[in-house]
Structures are given as structure tokens and as C-alpha cells.
Specification:
With 210 residues, the chain is of the alpha+beta class. Helices cover 52% and strands 14% of the residues. This is Transporter.
Length: 210
């Protein structure tokens, strides 16, 4: 009975959690339909509710915004909008911080969250998984002797919180696993150990050269 119960849980638990998360995201995005005038509400026009229309509206809105931003007029509009926000004390700080974070993470040539590292934390001899967030630290680098990098050490099982450390680059170990694999290991509290294809290929190449 225990064997069958575990086998059943392994099938239904991932499906159930995935369904709940997807439903929550779709439900949240469906609220974007409230931006439309009442006369154009899909529920009013069709007479019934179709889940997921808010997702399509959100994607279309993002694409249209990107198309407008791609030309000179769009950039001028954004610059004008940002100049207005810069006059509001609390809003300008929050907006500027979020924009810088998004630019650092989404830039195609950005190095943030592209490497999984091992860092000796919270003490020597104890290793923690970390993600490199930056290797250009400006004043921090100027006032330190060693070449330091910024790393983010997430907590488990919630990787959205954690610690930001400035550590010498020579004190970290770069792993071959992908960022997604590192997140899986953290979320699973170390139960899921990724079998990195890059690491396996490197081991095979080393065995062939020996």
C-alpha cells in the first residue's frame, strides 16, 4: 500500500501543483481585461467567460509597447514619461531600481544570473549554491584588494529571498549546471541533484584524453 500510495502521489502532486500555479497566473492576467471599456468586455460580448483571454491581451500589450519603443517617437515618449516620474520622490526611486534590475537581467549580453557558483558560506568548509549577479562593482572594486564579484545566495525552498555577497573571484567555484538546474536543486532543498549534460560531457572528454 505504501508503494502504491507514493507512486500515486508522484503522479498527482506535480500535476496538481502545476495546475494551481498556471490557474493562478491565468486568473491574475485575466484581470487585465478590466482595462477594456465595458462595451468591449469579452464576457459581455460573448455571454460567457473564456479563461486565458487576459493572457493574450497582456502579451499583445507587451508586443505593441515593444514595437512603439523600437522607433524614435517611442523613445521620446518614454523619455518624457520618465522625466515626469523623476519628479516624484518615492516613485522615481522605485521605478529607477526596477528598471535597472530588468535591464541587467533581460539584456542579451548581460552576465547576471548566467553562472551557477559554489561559495564557502556561512563559514569556511561549508559550501552554498550561488548565482553571479555582477562582475563590475565600481567603487566596491576600487576599495578592495582582491578582484571581487557580486553573488546572490538564495534561500530554500523560496529562492526569491537570500543574501547578496561580494566575494573574491578566486574563492568561488564555477559549476557547469544551468541556472534552471541550480534553481531546481535549491527549491527541492538539495533532493534533486541535476545531472548536468555539460558536466557529463566534460567528464567524458577528460576520460578520452586520459
Amino acid at each position: 500500500m505504501r508503494k502504491y500510495l507514493i507512486a500515486g502521489l508522484l503522479v498527482w502532486m506535480p500535476l496538481g501543483v502545476t495546475f494551481l500555479v498556471v490557474r493562478a497566473i491565468v486568473g491574475f492576467l485575466d484581470k487585465s481585461l478590466l482595462l477594456l471599456p465595458d462595451a468591449f468586455q469579452p464576457d459581455r460580448l460573448l455571454g460567457f467567460h473564456i479563461p486565458g483571454l487576459g493572457v493574450l491581451l497582456a502579451v499583445a500589450l507587451v508586443l505593441i509597447t515593444g514595437m512603439i519603443m523600437a522607433n524614435l517617437l517611442g523613445r521620446r515618449l518614454v523619455a518624457f514619461w520618465e522625466s515626469l516620474l523623476a519628479r516624484i520622490p518615492l516613485v522615481r526611486t522605485l521605478y529607477s531600481a526596477v528598471k535597472q534590475i530588468m535591464e541587467a537581467v533581460l539584456a542579451t549580453d548581460a552576465k547576471s544570473f548566467r553562472k551557477v557558483l559554489l561559495v564557502e558560506y556561512p563559514r569556511k568548509g561549508v559550501w552554498s549554491l550561488a548565482f553571479m549577479t555582477s562582475d563590475d562593482l565600481g567603487e566596491v572594486q576600487d576599495k578592495t584588494i582582491a578582484n571581487v564579484i557580486s553573488v546572490f545566495i538564495p534561500t530554500t525552498p523560496n529562492p526569491t529571498s537570500g543574501f547578496v555577497l561580494m566575494v573574491p573571484e578566486s574563492d568561488v567555484i564555477e559549476l557547469d549546471m544551468a541556472v534552471e538546474e541550480g534553481l531546481k536543486m535549491i527549491i527541492s532543498m538539495g533532493v534533486v541533484v541535476p545531472n548536468s549534460q555539460a558536466y557529463q560531457k566534460k567528464r567524458q572528454d577528460q576520460q578520452l584524453t586520459e
